[in-house]
Specification:
alpha+beta; 23% helix; 33% strand; binds zinc ion; 18 strands; 6 helices; 5-stranded mixed β-sheet; Ribosomal Protein S5, domain 2
């Protein structure tokens, strides 16, 4: 499979959606086959599922002494651009939320891509499943890569939505990247009351009201597409492209990351 490398470093600045603090991230080229690494406050860790320290409202990576939240939208962009060797330096507790989607990351990184690298994809030896009664993610061995997401929020304007995406065939920039972070209005009240979503605003999130949305939708099925984007971002924690079909039903970061961990475990067992 083809991979890309960055020609130069690229910087993004903005507010962190959960902390409300000013954050800055620099994505720099890394040596070939070195993998993706993250650094904050003198601490450094591999961007792999083992480095996940929290999955409650977003995906948080760290090493016990430092951590960085909300990595998923940047990682979705890196996965879509096939950048697997890079150094990510972060100032502040989060990756900036920017407009709540992956589009600004794609637009910032894309002009500095160099193609022509090869990378071995991760292939599944058997079907894998994670989940509980409400949420499931199923991954099936397949010669093609395809992500499918469905979600159901009864009695809200979201209702039932589904989205699917084939990375090697479809255009990420058009199909998934513009889909924004969303939250239900009653969730936003709870988050605020608990000191979360301090940097959340109508410029970086779509709020689902009782009778509509806080701003016009950018895409049909925007929420399902955003969840598909989150799934891709979390599966970037495999460290290489995935060759499988993944079906997610009303899942979230917890289950996406659990699946990535299970895949890496299975791979290690088969190798050993
Ligand atoms: Zn998201």
């Amino acid at each position: 499979m083809n991979a890309s490398r960055l020609r130069q470093e690229v910087q993004f600045r903005g507010v962190g959606v959960h902390s409300g603090e000013a954050c800055q991230v620099t994505v720099a080229p890394g040596p070939d086959s070195s993998g993706c690494w993250m650094e904050r406050e003198g601490q450094r860790w591999a961007c792999l599922a083992d480095s996940v320290v929290d999955v409650e409202r977003c995906t948080v990576l760290g090493n016990g002494q430092a951590s960085v939240s909300t990595v998923e939208h940047l990682f979705a962009a890196l996965a879509a651009l096939s950048i697997y060797d890079c150094e990510i330096r972060v100032t502040g507790p989060e990756i900036p939320i920017l407009d709540g989607s992956a589009l600004p990351f794609i637009q910032g990184l894309k002009p500095f891509l160099e193609t022509g690298l090869a990378i071995e994809p991760l292939e599944l030896g058997q079907p894998l499943w994670v989940g509980n009664e409400q949420s499931q993610v199923l991954a099936l061995p397949s010669p093609v890569c395809r992500f499918h997401y469905s979600l159901y929020y009864p009695q809200t304007p979201i209702g039932y939505q589904e989205a699917s995406y084939e990375p090697l065939i479809e255009c990420f920039e058009q199909k998934l990247a513009p889909a924004r972070t969303f939250a239900l209005e009653r969730e936003v009240e709870w988050l605020r009351a608990n000191g979360l979503a301090r940097g959340g605003s109508l410029d970086n999130a779509l709020v689902v009201l009782a009778d509509g949305f806080s701003s016009p939708l950018r895409l049909e099925q925007e929420m399902a597409r955003h969840k598909c984007l989150d799934l891709m971002g979390d599966l970037y924690l495999l460290g290489r492209p995935l060759l499988a079909q993944v079906f997610a039903v009303k899942a979230g970061h917890r289950w996406h990351v659990e699946l990535a961990r299970k895949m890496l475990r299975e791979l290690a067992e088969n190798a050993g």
